[in-house]
Request: fold
Amino acid sequence: MFQGRKLIIVTKHKKERVIAPILEKELGVECCVTDAIDTDSFGTFTGEISRKDTALETLRQKCLLGMAENDYDLGVASEGSFGPHPTIFFANADDELLILIDTKNNLEIVARALSTDTNFNGTQIESENDLIDFATKVKFPSHALILKPSENDYSKVYKGITDFNDLHIKYKALQNEYGTAYVETDMRAMYNPTRMSVIEQATHKLIQSIKNCCPKCATPGFKVVEVKSGLRCELCNLPTRSTLSYVFQCQKCLFEEEVLYPFQKEKEDPMYCDFCNP
Reply:
């Protein structure tokens, strides 16, 4: 379905460095890149432009716009979100979504990588020592920094800082003009190798999803649409909240298949049973 076709990667932050080699090797496509689309218009990490839609809808719009503007029927785009991990307390997370859209075959396949491996952080700076301590903690200078007057003040924003001397000069400039300074990690992919690695993970997951074809019509992207709980306790045999099965569905022919024991275990440890361990 994809062999020999041209695919456009919609990005202005060099994500093609990790996405393109994987897609070309695994799908046999020829990847091209467009940075002519201002993807920042959909929202910026620094907050000057807020994201108006959900991450998935933003991702879809970004990909379709890049495809339409460049006359491609096959495209890929990614969208990252940063903040508290949804289940691990006191941990930040990088939540990366990747989408492949094929308008020729009316396909849309999405993959997600959620990782606590991120340097996402920011703080108000009271002294140059505070600035150096923060920079060291977040892997500067291999990972860039952003400086601005305060967390929600975008009147002057210095992005992509990767040099200690430059960091010092811009910090002093903000202190002289505003009397305060706020520093945060630059989460744009080309300035954040840790984030780039998570995007690479998401790309591998996208390939897995694409290669998971419908058993009935062979359409790529046979995906999980429902997770059923009820894995039985090995002690009392009552159903627990743990996953019993996945329900897969084809987006084209709507064929469904339930797969039992997706985590390769048929019984749950009693410590996760509400009856044995209330």
The chain has a mean pLDDT of 93. The longest strand covers residues 74-84. The chain is about 25% helix and 30% strand. The longest helix spans residues 193-211.
